[in-house]
Specification:
This protein is mainly beta. Helix content is 7%, strand content 32%. The radius of gyration is 19 Å and the shape is elongated. The N and C termini lie far apart (50 Å). The mean pLDDT is 95.
């Protein structure tokens, strides 16, 4: 069997809703049936084969080739299977993801892993704003699963995040972990302004002190040896990420906050 491949054949001037093209919806369908599926292009529906050249037969292993940032909602509500995007991808990549694996070779747009529940997302490029966040007007962001970002992330990473793990090998933008409720965000690079603003609980793990420092709404609790950190790094060993090879450490400088709220969040900086 070969991967079920959707090769974009148009210049994609309008945004394309790819939410019907997941393992859950395509399993058991013939190529003719898949070709007849309607996808939303701009403000009208078109057959999938008018947008994509479709080949392959393994709906558990889906590939989007020649992709651009016009492809939105890839992997929406997926519970099983694997999707590989060759190129960039648009907004809401992995929206409501409940299982399986998503990977993109390029960059993602806004709201990647938005309200994700389980599974794994790997981004080999950069991620846009609100990674792991909540939809506009909602108060629950990512509630489970693992997101690996090889590059940088935009602003508001982990906004309203409730559970799960986000691993960032590059830099994170402004308001990282803003309004975070629980979960873990780890960053190998630098972070922007207003780190942890409105943070209620959860952990931000840094390998270096941010260039902008830690804001005054976090209390310096001194240096600590935390026994759970070696266990956390041991869990990273199975992942395809730089975090798998980062030398485990347990000694950190701990900052608690946001003191403007309940102040139970923590920023841990390697000493």
């Amino acid at each position: 069997m070969s991967a079920l491949t959707f090769t974009l054949t148009t210049s994609a001037k309008q945004r394309i809703d790819c939410s019907p093209l997941t393992t859950d919806t395509l399993t058991g369908k013939s190529l003719a049936e898949i070709a007849a599926i309607e996808v939303l292009v701009g403000n009208r529906y078109e057959r999938a084969d008018s947008v994509f050249d479709i080949s392959g037969d393994d709906a558990a292993d889906i590939k989007f080739a020649n992709s651009t940032d016009k492809l939105d909602f890839v992997g929406r509500n997926m519970t099983t299977g694997k999707i590989l995007v060759d190129g960039n991808v648009g907004a809401y990549f992995g929206l409501f993801l409940e299982g399986g694996q998503l990977e993109v070779t390029g960059n993602t747009d806004v709201y990647t892993a938005c309200e994700m529940k389980s599974g794994q997302i790997k981004i080999n490029g950069n991620a846009g704003d609100f990674l792991g966040g909540a939809r506009p007007g909602r108060r629950n962001g990512m509630t489970g699963g693992t997101v690996i970002v090889k590059g940088n992330t935009g602003d508001r990473t982990g906004d309203h995040m409730r559970r799960g793990v986000i691993l960032i090998e590059g830099n994170a933008g402004d308001y990282c972990a803003g309004r975070m409720i629980s979960g873990t965000i780890a960053v190998l690079g630098d972070v922007g302004a207003h780190l942890g603003m409105g943070m209620k609980r959860g952990t931000v793990l840094l390998t270096q002190l941010p260039s902008r420092g830690i804001t005054a709404n976090f209390n310096d609790c001194g240096s600590h040896t935390l026994a759970f950190l070696p266990l956390l790094f041991a869990s990273f060993k199975k992942l395809d990420s730089q975090f798998a090879s980062v030398e485990s450490f347990s000694r950190v400088q701990r900052y608690a906050g946001d003191l403007a709220g309940i102040g139970m969040g923590e920023i841990l900086v390697k000493i």
